[in-house]
Amino acid sequence: MNKDPFKDYFREAEPSKRDKGYAWHTAIGLQAVDGLKTSDYLMHTAVRNIEGEISFEEANKLLQNYYEENPVRDTGDRTEEADKVAARIASLLSERAFSFTPNEYLSIHRKLFTGIYSHAGCIRDYNITKKEWVLNGATVLYGSASELSATLDYDFSLEKKFSYKNLSMDEIIHHLAVFVSRLWQIHVFGEGNTRTTAVFFIKYMRTLGFDMTNDVFAINAWYFRNALVRANYNDLKNGICETTEYLELFLRNLLLNEKHTLHNRILHISGTF
After folding, report:
1. Do residues 104 and 2 both lie within one domain?
2. What does the pLDDT look like over 19-60, one tens digit per residue?
């Protein structure tokens, strides 16, 4: 099956098909932040949903039944996770309901990963590190387990108080880049932080009046994650400072339909890729 059957739906006159095409395209693309790929079965299921043959609820039930009948034997194969989480993301992105609260953020994680991670919707109680390709194997300093809830509340309260009134678009994009990079850096969950942050951020930006019915997230999900990494990493002795410049280019493409080239190799700290 064509691995990208969704682009045609972006030109659809029917808003329902266009919006669902965007939701599925984004949801499937976001699995790349963890190096995951979805199955052809999910693609077929997605198209059936876009065409109105089945609801999102029915799509999720079909996936559940499919994997009960075709269990994955290889413990390293995460296709089932990719398929189920993609379907759940598509469903969430198709809903307009949203509240800008920490509880909404936790709820999104729970909805995406229930039955996949035992800690779905729960704040982690241990510290973490993650080796990053873009940092030559180094890690971002993530939030301390003892402070996660307080840090999350603080970041939300800051954003709630912030006024976008009279800001230029450059200033708005810079501020959004800072906000989402700080939210991500907390890394509230043991796993699934980037996908949760992306879904929450997309829904939040809609409340600010942005229409993001394009393929920027779908095609550049790994770039988005690496840009978040670079926005939260310092190595001053080697002249490396945290920067939102890469994230801002991503957001300009996403929100303003600009056409900046987004190559992951540009983000590597060595500068040699």
Report:
1. no
2. 999 999 999 999 999 999 999 999 999 999 999 999 999 999
The reply to whether 77 and 182 lie within a common domain is no
Last residue of a domain, one of 73, 95, 117: 95
Q: Which residues contact 228 (CB under 8 A, 6 or more apart)?
A: 180, 181, 184, 185, 194, 197, 247
Amino acid letter for position 181: S
SS3 178: helix
Single pTM value for the model: 0.95
Structure tokens at 180: 């989402």
Q: Could you tell me the residue range of the domain that residue 11 belongs to?
A: 1-95
By the 8 A CB rule, do 249 and 183 touch?
no
- Classified as helix, coil or strand, 210 is coil
Q: In the structure encoding, which two tokens stand for residue 239, read together?
A: 């002249």
- d(C-alpha 32, C-alpha 38), whole Å: 9
Question: Among 218, 213, 206, which residue's Cα sits nearest to residue 16?
Answer: 213
Length, in residues, of the chain: 273
Greatest extent of the chain over all pairs of C-alpha atoms, in Å: 58
Q: Are residues 114 and 212 in the same domain?
A: yes
CA 28 to chain centre: 10
**CA–CA dist 57, 34 (Å, integer):** 25
Beta-carbon count within 10 A of 196 CB = 26
Closest alpha carbon to 194 in 219, 223, 215: 223
